[in-house]
Design goal:
The complex is a heterodimer of chains A (223) and B (108). Chain A is mostly beta strands. Chain A is 6% helix and 63% strand. The chains are: A mainly beta (223), B alpha+beta (108).
């Protein structure tokens, strides 16, 4: 029991060092390490990346996704490259166009009644994101391909929201964000999650409940 | 005579204060909308040997840098650091006021 708890604590500790591809800017400043954790019942992702320039970052991602009926499970481990293709800085806004590239392994498990089919494949994971942000509004549209032989779990998400008020740089700013996301061949539904986002200069955290009444938590930290 | 000495002393004091006053640089920055994303600017500028203190104001699009006594920082260095953090510098000016004055919003 003690060892089990210790393992869980170590795993949680590791998770805290990890980065999301679909929130805020998915890349820190040059020389920084950005970490992320995205946790919900059917989507558990932990990743980090290192920004070698202010436009390029390399990282690692571990992702576990599951179908709504729990009959399909996918475990992905990949090397990632994030590229800021273009940034438009205005006095009161910023917009960005991002390119994501990932390659790694996909371990799958499909349950068909009493039968269980397990497989390992090579996964490629390219994607794009456009986002626009002011101190009061936020919008992001992301599309990523999750492809392996006979596998297509392409992912789309749209996020939009507003901050309740502007704050000083040192203070925590609360936001209301709604995300709609869809994962091909794992769910028939569009998952919609209204979330409370708290942004501080040191951390970024989001929490909400999706349209299946399942909790969701996102966390980011930059070193 | 006493008055003259006092005036002379005051004039010299004011002169010496301005000679050793640490300037504060006011940098206008485009694209700085999120504290989590803008932390790179603060960290990089703070890491400079010339920097005493940094103040970021998202609403005013302002980064204010108080320099250590006798230190100078070129506009090129500031522009490069902020550019490397992902933002654009639109203006740099030297303020005669200390950082606390700018923080208090009195340096309009």
């Amino acid at each position: 029991m003690y060892i089990f708890l210790q393992k869980r604590l170590i795993l949680f500790g590791l998770m805290l060092f990890i980065h999301p591809s679909a929130y805020a800017a998915p890349l820190g400043y040059q020389g920084s390490v950005m970490t992320m954790l995205d946790y919900s019942q059917n989507w558990r992702e932990a990743s980090f990346n290192y920004a070698v320039t202010n436009r390029d970052a390399f990282g690692l991602t571990h992702l576990e996704i599951r179908s709504d009926d729990r009959q399909k499970k996918r475990t992905i481990d990949e090397f990632t490259y994030t590229k800021l293709l273009s940034r438009w800085n205005q006095p009161s806004s910023q917009s960005n166009l991002w390119l994501f590239l990932g390659i790694g392994s996909l371990r799958g498990e499909d349950k068909l009644g009493l039968m269980k089919d397990s497989f390992d494949k090579v996964l490629v994971n390219p994607g794009m994101q456009f986002d626009y942000e002011t101190t009061r509004v936020y919008f992001a549209a992301t599309h990523k391909l999750y492809r392996a032989t006979d596998i297509n779990h392409d992912f789309s998400s749209v996020r939009a929201g507003f901050s309740f008020y502007e704050t000083d740089y040192e203070k925590t700013q609360p936001w209301f964000i709604v995300e709609a996301r869809y994962t091909n061949h794992l769910s028939d539904k569009v998952e919609i999650t209204p979330m409370l986002r708290l942004i501080n200069k040191s951390f970024f955290v989001e929490g909400g409940i999706n349209n299946d009444a399942q909790p969701r938590l996102n966390f980011m930290y930059t070193f | 005579m006493k008055k003259l000495i006092t005036i002379l002393f005051l004039a010299l004091s004011i002169n010496s204060v301005s000679a050793f006053a640490t300037p504060t640089l006011k940098v206008s920055v485009n694209g700085m909308v999120c504290a989590f994303c803008a932390q790179g600017i603060e960290k990089k500028v703070k890491a400079l040997a010339e920097t005493k203190e940094v103040y970021v104001n998202l609403k005013a699009h302002l980064v204010a840098i108080e320099l250590k006594e006798g230190k100078k920082l070129s506009n090129e260095t500031i522009t490069k650091i902020i550019k490397d953090a992902g933002y654009d510098v639109t203006n740099i000016e030297e303020s005669e006021h200390p950082l606390a004055h700018i923080k208090a919003g009195m340096d309009k």
